[in-house]
Specification:
The chain is mainly beta and 131 residues long. The protein is built from one helix and twelve strands, in the order E-E-E-E-E-E-E-E-E-E-E-E-H. 7% of the residues lie in helices and 54% in strands. 24% of the residues are buried.
Length: 131
Amino acid sequence: MFEKVKKVSTENLGKTNRIVEGTSIVGDIVSKADFRLDGELIGNFTSQGKLVIGASGIVKGEIICHNADIEGEFQGKLKVLEVLNIKGTARIHGEIAVGKLSIEPGADFTASCTMLNSNQVILLEDGKGTE
């Protein structure tokens, strides 16, 4: 009769991981907190928070996160459960699946884009499926 309300975790509130410019990582990153990437990641990234790819940031791989702002370069598969903001300096190439999408003028957006419906987002959050 009543739906179970998910608790919002506050333990990582205000905490942001950061990879600075000039740093390259080859491998996968899993984070519960927000993340800012100004360096290079070749691999997969999964987060329950927000990902910011700075203007000098480069990601080649697969990303799954709740929210994202992209100013730099991304190549691969990207799933953003809530809002994806693509800034005017961004270069996006690949396959995108999002809840909501915002693209500033000037962005290089060469990608296929699928809008997720609420049922798909619930499945992804619960880990029961991919789409």
